# Entry
Amino acid sequence: MSATEHAGRAAAARAYRPALRPGVLIGPPVLRGPRTVHLIKHPVSGATFEVGPKEHFVISRLDGTRNLDDVVSEYAARFHLRLPEEQWTRLLGLLGTRGLLAGSPDPAPPEPPPARTGTFWKGSRRTVADAHRTAGRLHRLLSPVLRPWAQLPLVVAELVMIGTVLADPVTFLGGTLDLLTRPLALIPFAVFLWFSICLHELAHGIAARHYGGVVTEIGLRWRFPALMMYCTVDNYLFLPGLRSKSVVAAAGAHVNFVLLLPFALWWALLEQADPIRPPLAGVLFIGIVQALSNLVPLPPLDGYRILGHALGTANLAPETWTYVALRRQGREAVAAYPRRARRIHTSYAVTAVALVLLAVAGSCTAVLLLLLR
# Structure
């Protein structure tokens, strides 16, 4: 290539004003081990990849109005470094290869997952042809009660119900024992609990739809002999803001509590000597413990996702155990971790161990109290 051609190409590259293709999703910064990363997702293929803060800074400015000189000046103001032209060219090449720039050819859409996977003992089956549209219909149907004026009183009622039950665990444990000895009451309650868990999953999808999420699958998953519903949200990590992701994660437990409110009201209105009161107390105790257990910050529970979003982390549990294993080798092994990451992983390791021990102790105490009665 002649010097004139090279200079012409360099000038064209500097004048080029690239833009991301419409629909590209860029996630917020999250801490993954010692690194801060952003997730980027292709709107057609669904492929995702990670970039660092500097690459994200450049990518977020590709709106078709800036050329290399514009980005270089903004990059220098932000990082006090000059963006090398080679890095600019390499990044644009990567984005173009992945089909993330406007004008890039559309990749083939991903193949739809099979309707059924697995075996008789373990697997899953899609039960809804268009999960996103179904979630949208449910969202439109429930939209009047999804407003704050309807949800806030429900949350207050839930807190009163939970506080009442936890303030008198002996009485409600006794009610649980009474419920377990009544098959005619226990069987309908088991069916109710199963439907409550199914609605728990649907609630995640409806909440995600409320915030602009995409529901890709609704179906049944089995681990013989258990059979449960599942609902998959495709772009959950790309929902805007902490609140939206936290609400989606907590929506399932919220619905579980709401379903218990009629039983709580029924129990409160009965006379103390009414024979229906003890099994109702058992229904409330089991239901509340089941819903609260989903808010415990241990994987794969919803509380774990909420904590991860609140801390701005990705893969908190596995990254924590990686950090702990490295820390046992000495301080030098974790020197690459920033102070915030070291605090988060150390605190979560201690918290996770404490929660597991507390759960074991609580379960043993509950069994002992039931046996003593």
Summary: The first strand starts at residue 25 and ends at 26. The mean pLDDT is 88.
